[in-house]
Design goal:
The structure holds two protein chains of two kinds. Chain A is of the alpha+beta class. Chain A has one domain: Alpha-Beta Plaits. Helix content of chain A is 25%, strand content 38%. Chain A is built from two helices and six strands, in the order E-H-E-E-E-E-H-E. In chain A, a hairpin with a 2-residue loop joins strand 3 and strand 4. Among the domains of chain B are: 89 residues, no CATH class; 122 residues, no CATH class. Chain B is elongated and about 80 Å long. The longest helix of chain B has 22 residues. The chains are: A alpha+beta, B mainly alpha. Chains A and B meet through helix 1, strand 2 and strand 5 of A and helix 1, helix 2 and helix 7 of B.
Chain lengths: 118, 418
């Protein structure tokens, strides 16, 4: 099984959303997670705190720290999952019906295994 | 990470937790900080929405929400430089995060009583109860009452302003003031239920949810010893008995069915049993309310195996009682239908035609619809058809329109039997 990092970008959710609709959306994520468990394995997931962040660079021997957002984009990085699956094709099948796609995009990247053979 | 496949969240957990959390927080913060309570609760729900998809649903979702809302409230108060005493009152009242399985009846009841305060205009009571106690959003309330969100939002802002200006609080009313305050609550619940009942089977889902919400709130009122009173049992009984028929009220095509046409095996027996139990408890007092009589009528129908074996003379007598308590043309119309079952169609038609001379019912489609039904039963389909056409010319919902059109078609196809 290969490991994949799934980055979830989106525009955030409407703060006026009704409690009932919020629960329905959470239920959709929950049943998606259950489908992930059937096709592969959900290893970990984290939400990233609000869109702010820091970028750290070195310029002329000086440390330069700038505030995020890092990319000029309407979509910010909201969180990520690490999912085990056999292949990119399998990952695309898993992501096909993610509720996240209703309000944002998903970027999936295979994680390089640290084996001596490389 | 929770990824067990066993069941999801409890139905309406967010909606009901929202109401419960606002009640618990506002009771400690004071009614003048109702907005703050609502904001931190909404933030807690949003935090769940943005976190749980990644981390999974926590083991105790309700407790998690309570804790987040509580912390947010403390943060806000500290930031606003609120007195230490207020902070402590919030902390002390919160020894452990409230378990969602243990309803905070005191707090929720106090909140219902305030939202239904007779000093507030009636539409404001309804909107405030749904928003603050029920956890409905402004958009949902607007959809339920076929109104615009901006109108509902405005109504809520004004109501909260009045709560602050009049100093309406979240204390339990004194014993002598309680009956009047309770009446106002029952009035709102009755209105919510009827709105939902009228819309049931339609395509407006939020409206139909009003029935369930009215029943939930009535149960909540009954859960507190000070408000566990006969009229509340009567109203709950009425709502349960009416709800028992909801599964049979429409056929497979979604068309409305009359009481006599319904498949009574589809009535919900558990709801009927519970409704009858509450009707018995409602009899404990020495006052008869509209709810008592309406529940008794509903119980007559629920207990009868079919339309013919219904105790119509008793139903008629109950309608006479109801008319004395609540003289309304709509009650008089229903009484006329019961009269037709007892004394025959001619008597029913005479009573309905007398009502037709009243202006109040001039635009009420159920009057010509009832006349159509009785003329048809009397074997005069041509006259019946004329009344069904008159009913169709008045404003009616789309399921009712289909119903009336079907009846009209049947009358037009039927030869006159005399």
């Amino acid at each position: 099984m290969a490991k994949f990092l799934v980055l979830a970008r989106g525009q955030g959710t409407d703060p006026r959303m009704s409690p009932e609709d919020m629960q329905k959306l959470i239920e959709r994520y929950r049943s998606w997670t259950e489908r992930v468990a059937r096709a592969g394995q959900l290893v970990h997931g984290e939400k990233l705190r609000s869109p702010e962040g820091r970028v750290v660079r070195e310029k002329g021997g000086e440390l330069v720290v700038t505030d995020g957002p890092f990319v000029e984009s309407k979509e910010f990085l909201g969180g990520f999952w690490i999912i085990e699956a056999p292949s990119y094709d399998a990952m695309v099948e898993i992501l096909r019906d993610s509720p996240h796609l209703a309000s944002g995009s998903l970027e999936v990247r295979q994680i390089e295994e640290m084996t001596p053979r490389g | 990470m929770t990824d067990d496949a066993v069941g999801g969240l409890v139905d309406h957990l967010f909606r009901h937790s929202a109401g419960r959390m606002v009640a618990v927080l506002a009771r400690r913060l004071g009614a003048d900080r109702l907005d703050l309570a609502e904001e931190v609760v909404q933030e807690a729900l949003m935090q769940a929405l943005t976190t749980w998809p990644y981390r999974g649903v926590p083991d105790n979702p309700g407790g998690w929400l309570f804790q987040v809302a509580h912390h947010r409230a403390l943060d806000r108060l500290r930031r606003d430089g609120v007195l230490r005493a207020k902070l402590e009152s919030l902390g002390a009242g919160w020894s452990a995060p409230a378990d969602p399985a243990t309803p905070s009846v005191d707090d929720e009841l106090a909140m219902i009583l305030m939202c239904c305060h007779p000093a507030l205009p009636r539409p404001a009571r309804v909107a405030l109860t749904l928003k603050t106690v029920g956890g409905f959003s402004v958009e949902e309330i607007a959809a339920a009452f076929l109104s615009r969100p901006a109108t509902i939002a405005q109504r809520l802002v004004r109501a909260k302003r009045q709560i602050r200006a009049d100093g309406l609080g979240l204390e339990m009313p004194a014993d002598d003031a309680l009956p009047a305050r309770l009446d106002s609550v029952l009035d709102v619940l009755y209105l919510l239920f009827n709105e939902g009942y009228a819309a049931h089977g339609g395509d407006n889902l939020v409206r139909t949810e009003l029935c369930g919400e009215a029943i939930r709130l009535a149960r909540l009122v009954l859960a507190h010893p000070s408000t566990e009173r006969p009229p509340v049992h009567a109203l709950l009984s009425l709502m349960l008995l009416q709800s028992s028929r909801l599964p049979a009220r429409a056929d497979e095509a979604g068309d409305l069915l009359l009481l006599g046409e319904q498949d009574r095996s589809r009535w919900d027996l558990a709801l009927i049993a519970e409704g009858l139990t509450h009707l018995e408890r409602a009899a404990a007092g020495d006052t008869i309310t509209v709810f008592h009589v309406e529940a008794a009528i509903a119980a007559c129908h629920a207990a009868a195996p079919d339309e013919a074996s219904t105790d119509w003379p008793y139903v008629l007598q109950l309608y006479d009682d109801l008319l004395a308590l609540k003289p309304s043309p709509v009650v008089a119309l229903n009484r006329a239908i019961a009269l037709a079952m007892v004394e025959g169609t001619a008597a029913g038609i005479r009573a309905l035609e007398a009502l037709g001379r009243q202006r109040a019912l001039a635009r009420y489609h159920l009057l010509p619809a009832a006349l159509g039904a009785l003329w048809r039963r009397a074997g005069v389909p041509l006259t019946a058809a004329r009344y069904y056409r008159a009913a169709l010319a008045l404003p009616v919902s789309s399921p009712e329109r289909r119903f009336l059109l079907r009846r009209l078609g049947e009358c037009e196809a039927e030869p006159a039997s005399r």
